[in-house]
From TrEMBL:
Keywords: Sigma factor, Transcription, Transcription regulation
Domain RNA polymerase sigma factor 70 region 4 type, chain residue ranges per copy: 107-158
Ranges of residues in domain RNA polymerase sigma-70 region: 9-71
GO BP terms: DNA-templated transcription initiation
Sample GO molecular function, one term: sigma factor activity
Protein origin, superkingdom: Bacteria
Pfam family, one: Sigma70_r2
Keyword Transcription regulation: yes
The keyword GTP-binding is assigned to this record: no
UniProt lineage: Bacteria, Bacillati, Actinomycetota, Actinomycetes, Cryptosporangiales
Family of this protein: Belongs to the sigma-70 factor family. ECF subfamily.
Protein name: RNA polymerase sigma-70 factor, ECF subfamily
SUPFAM superfamilies hit by this protein: NTF2-like (SSF54427), Sigma2 domain of RNA polymerase sigma factors (SSF88946), Sigma3 and sigma4 domains of RNA polymerase sigma factors (SSF88659)
Length: 306
C-alpha cells in the first residue's frame, strides 16, 4: 500500500478521540486508543477504501476491548466513579451539536456506564455521531439486525434516566457564577438559595484524595457540607476558575501555587443546581495540569489559627 497519510489521520483525530472518550469515559485511555489506531493504520499492508471507516472501526474496537477490562476495575473502585473531566471536545459538527453536547455531560456518561460495551459503542456511533446501521454493523462486527436490537436496548436505558438541563447556556453560566461567587465569599445563604430541594453532592476521590462523603442529598445537607468547606478553602487561599466541564458549567479549584485541587461539575435546571459532582482523584486530573497535594492542603486548612 501507499504510505499512510499523517495529515489525513490528524484531520480525523478529533473524531476518533471523541468516539473513544464517549465509549471509555477516560481522556488518557481515549488518547491511548487513538495512538494505537495510528500504529495499526501505519502497519496495515492494504490501503483501505475509506480511511475514515477504517480508523473509526479500529478505534471503536480498541475502545470496546479496553472497556471490557476497565469495567472490572471500576466495579472495585473506592467510592463513586466519575469519568475523567473533559474541558473541550475536540470534535465539532454543527449538524449534530445537540447530540454531541448532551452525550459528553457527566450525567450522560454515567448513564452510558450502565450499558454493555457493545450497546455503548452502538449507541455512541448511531445516536451521537449519526453513523448508518450498515456502518455500525461493520464497525462492531455484528449484523444490522443485531445492532438494531442493541440500539433499542441502549436507548431504553438512556431514555429512562436521560438528564435534563437548562436550555439557555448563558443562564446556566450566570447561575454557576453566582453559586461560585457565593461559595468563595462564604455566603451560605446565597449558596443555599441556588440549590434545588433534592440537590445531590457526589464526590469521586478514588481513595486517593479527600472524600467529602459518597453522596449527600437535599439542600440543607448539601449546604451544610459546602459551609464546612468554605473556611477550609479560604485558609489555603484556594482560587476558583469558572470553566465548562463536560459541556456543563463547572469549576477548577487551585491552590495558591496554581496547582489543581479539585474539579466540580454542575447540573442546572429551572434556575437551580440539581447536582454537584466533585472530582478529587489526582489520577483523573493530571491531563488538566499540575495537581496539588490535596491531603497536604487539607492538613494546612485544619491547622489551628493563632
Amino acid at each position: 500500500m501507499s504510505d499512510p497519510n499523517p495529515d489525513e489521520f490528524q484531520d480525523l483525530r478529533p473524531l476518533l478521540f471523541s468516539i473513544a472518550y464517549r465509549i471509555l469515559g477516560s481522556v488518557s485511555e481515549a488518547e491511548d486508543a487513538v495512538q494505537e489506531t495510528w500504529l495499526r493504520y501505519a502497519a496495515s499492508s492494504t490501503q483501505p477504501d475509506s480511511v475514515k471507516a477504517f480508523l473509526s472501526t479500529t478505534v471503536t474496537r480498541i475502545a470496546i476491548d479496553v472497556l471490557r477490562s476497565a469495567r472490572v476495575r471500576r466495579e472495585e473502585y473506592a467510592g463513586p466513579w466519575f469519568p475523567e473531566p473533559l474541558l473541550a471536545d475536540p470534535y465539532d459538527d454543527p449538524a449534530r451539536a445537540a447530540e454531541l453536547a448532551d452525550s459528553v455531560s457527566m450525567a450522560a456518561l454515567l448513564l452510558l456506564e450502565r450499558l454493555s460495551p457493545l450497546e455503548r459503542a452502538v449507541f455512541v456511533l448511531r445516536e451521537v455521531f449519526g453513523f448508518g446501521f450498515p456502518e455500525v454493523a461493520s464497525t462492531v462486527g455484528r449484523s444490522e439486525a443485531a445492532c438494531r436490537q442493541l440500539m433499542v436496548r441502549a436507548r431504553r436505558h438512556m431514555d429512562s434516566g436521560r438528564p435534563r438541563y437548562e436550555a439557555d447556556r448563558a443562564e446556566r453560566e450566570k447561575l454557576a457564577a453566582r453559586f461560585l461567587d457565593a461559595f468563595r465569599d462564604g455566603d451560605v445563604d446565597g449558596v443555599r438559595d441556588l440549590l434545588s430541594a433534592d440537590v445531590a453532592l457526589i464526590g469521586d476521590a478514588g481513595g486517593k484524595g479527600p472524600q467529602w462523603g459518597d453522596r449527600f442529598v437535599g439542600s440543607e445537607n448539601v449546604a451544610g457540607v459546602l459551609a464546612a468547606l468554605m473556611p477550609l478553602f479560604d485558609r489555603i487561599d484556594a482560587g476558583v476558575e469558572l470553566r465548562e466541564v463536560n459541556g456543563q458549567p463547572g469549576a477548577i479549584f487551585h491552590d495558591r501555587s496554581g496547582d489543581i485541587l479539585s474539579v466540580w461539575s454542575l447540573d442546572i435546571l429551572d434556575g437551580q443546581i440539581q447536582a454537584i459532582r466533585t472530582l478529587n482523584n489526582p489520577d483523573k486530573l493530571g491531563h488538566l495540569g499540575p495537581v496539588a497535594d490535596a491531603w497536604a492542603a487539607l492538613r494546612e486548612a485544619r491547622e489551628p489559627t493563632e
